[in-house]
């Protein structure tokens, strides 16, 4: 969410009515999340000036660990230097820390492609936004789950009940510090996650939603404290339901 919001912001800056705007003091502390969107808190160090040049050798974009040769345009400006400077700063301050983590395994290759392409400046801001929106579509639609084994058959569904949320085993990247609360596309995906965790014996798909509209599923290691709830379903591993609990 943070990276996508940042890319949308940089897309606007690259195509602003004032021209391509560069953030000269590009640091994480210069941004804040407001209602799920990343905002710049200080525009004092923003500029629309692009580096003047006479030849391509005048257009090297330098960073502490990398340098990128750019082209000198016919009007004597380094082509795309503001856009590329913003994008590489996004890569080194945000993408490298946030993109490799917490995505479903099937989507990680797409995010690695974005990471590598922006790190080498092979993507401009247009291509970067397009790549992010493709990943978001796959994530929201559940298309990344195609051709996977069916796991829900390994569970018994108990309709009309839910479990009590409390302290339980932890998992990454949980939305709760008390237990294992993860975003899922469906009960089928949740069943696959539960099967992959040795501690998990049951799960419920809650009514809570993430910013993408995906529900949150709570995974638990015990079958205690079932509460009547007409709108809920508890999914219990068949291997865990053979005792006196049911």
Automatic annotation (TrEMBL):
InterPro entries assigned: FAM69_kinase_dom, PKDCC
GO biological process, one term: skeletal system development
Keywords: Kinase, Signal, Transferase
Statement: the UniProt record of this protein carries the keyword Cell membrane: no
GO-annotated molecular function: non-membrane spanning protein tyrosine kinase activity
GO cellular component terms, A-Z: extracellular region
A family per Pfam: PIP49_C
Domain FAM69 protein-kinase intervals: 2-116
UniProt name for this protein: PKDCC kinase
